[in-house]
TrEMBL record:
GO-annotated biological processes: aspartate biosynthetic process
InterPro entries documented for this protein: Aminotransferase_I/II_large, Asp_trans, NHTrfase_class1_PyrdxlP-BS, PyrdxlP-dep_Trfase, PyrdxlP-dep_Trfase_major, PyrdxlP-dep_Trfase_small
Name of the molecule in the record: Aspartate aminotransferase
Uppermost EC category: transferase
Organism name: Canariomyces notabilis
């Protein structure tokens, strides 16, 4: 008889973890041999041929970098590439923002948006307590699934606030306001700056003003996550409007910023984390102290952030002509997605598909919450080889002029068979 294995990690201590649902969906799609298969799960831009698109401005920046005789592979400082972090803060707050000129912003380069959220969570877990007790992090219901585990992994308690209205397929604004009003003063409120993931539903500018006033009254702490600036509407300033509103009202906050989507630098993991202090006579000193602690946390986690994607983004952000070309690239991506929203809605309405489909064009950004049930989603997968998450979220970037009619007809059939 073979001896039993001896381990410090038996199943009752380390159980088998379930596969990440999104990556499981990707694996199933890749294994599907059907020539008609459609991937509406992937959160990455695809062109009208269904292929990854390297932005023209990124190709030019890459050429500049390759031909730079001074380029090397030395370590970056712990806080990252200063020519990136400074411009990244300007991109969010505006180049003439008083918060920047008054030295109220501490910026650290991170491992894309995920790393930025994690660094912020770690900082708040260590330093943001009231009477020695951690404040609860309130997440929208629903939110990006990774938010849940990032905050719980650092020991912060989480709760949710209503966000998506299943009836209107829009924003449950009254429910959201009630939850923010009822939350204990000083709670951490995670907000999506634009192109809410996964719903594609954003508050209007007027609603953002109400949210800001309510949070300021309750002394809540805003934690903005922004992964789609410029990618949502095609307008960098418009997509940063919610953040600028809070900063202009003198609210202390933090921001997680990703360059994965808007630069197409998915695998290069380029992003930043920003702390913005409220205006005060000692704001610069507060910011300096926060920056010093963020550097300690960064040192213990990754020591130094990666350099390649940061250099690409920095070259573009610091060159007027390349920056203008980047804005055009953003309009190309956002414009194609808007066109696919219009095409899918119009085809569903032409077919007379049961239900209302205006929410598809009312929503914004990469994702749309279709309102399809889990049973309908699974039937679309089994019968038509169309892949989306079980909650009915689709990536609009997975649609193109060749498959949008096929997808619409499949949705029409499934909705009629499984009302």
């Amino acid at each position: 008889m073979a001896p039993s294995s001896i381990t410090s990690f038996p199943p009752d201590v380390v159980p088998q973890a379930p596969e990440d649902p999104l990556f499981g969906l990707m694996r199933a799609y890749k294994a599907d041999p059907s020539p008609n298969k459609v991937d509406l799960g992937i959160g990455a831009y695809r062109d009208d041929n269904g292929k990854p698109w390297v932005l023209s401005v990124v190709r030019k920046a890459d050429e500049i970098l390759r031909n730079d005789p001074e380029a090397n592979h030395e370590y970056l400082p712990i806080a990252g590439l200063a020519s990136l972090t400074g411009k990244a803060a300007e991109l969010l707050l505006g180049p003439s923002a008083p918060a920047i000129s008054e030295k109220r912003v501490a910026s650290v380069q991170t491992i894309s948006g995920t790393g930025a959220v994690h660094l912020g969570a770690l900082f708040l877990a260590k330093f943001y307590k009231i009477d020695g007790v951690h404040r609860t992090v309130y997440l929208s219901n629903p939110t990006w699934a990774n938010h849940h585990q990032i905050f719980t992994n650092v020991g912060l308690p989480i709760a949710t606030y209503p966000y998506f209205d299943k009836e209107t397929k829009g924003l449950d604004f009254e429910g959201m306001k009630r939850a923010l009003a009822d939350a204990p003063a000083g709670s951490i409120i995670l907000l999506h700056a634009c192109a809410h993931n996964p719903t594609g539903v954003d508050p209007s500018p007027e609603q953002w003003r109400e949210i800001a006033a309510l949070m300021k009254e309750k002394k809540h702490f805003p934690f903005f996550d922004t992964a789609y600036q410029g990618f949502a509407s095609g307008d960098l300033d418009r997509d940063a409007g919610s953040i600028r509103l809070f900063v202009e009202q003198g609210v202390e906050l933090v921001i997680a910023q990703s360059f994965a989507k808007n630069f197409g630098l998915y695998g290069e993991r380029a992003g930043c984390f920003h702390f913005v202090a409220a205006p005060s006579s000692d704001a610069a000193e507060i910011t300096s102290r926060v920056a010093s602690q963020l550097a300690i946390l960064q040192r213990s986690e990754i020591s130094n952030p990666p350099i390649y994607g940061a250099r690409i983004a920095s070259i573009v952000l610091n060159d007027q002509a390349l920056f203008a070309e980047w804005q055009e690239n953003l309009r190309t991506m956002s414009g194609r997605i808007i066109a696919m929203r219009q095409a899918l809605r119009s085809k569903l309405e032409e077919l007379g598909t049961p239900g209302k489909w205006n929410h598809i064009t009312d929503q914004i950004g990469m994702f749309s919450f279709t309102g399809l049930t889990e049973a309908q989603v699974l039937k679309l997968r089994s019968d038509f080889h169309i892949y989306m998450t079980k909650n009915g979220r689709i990536s609009m970037a997975g649609l193109n002029t060749r498959n949008v009619e096929y997808v619409a007809k499949a949705i029409d059939k499934v909705v009629r068979e499984l009302p």
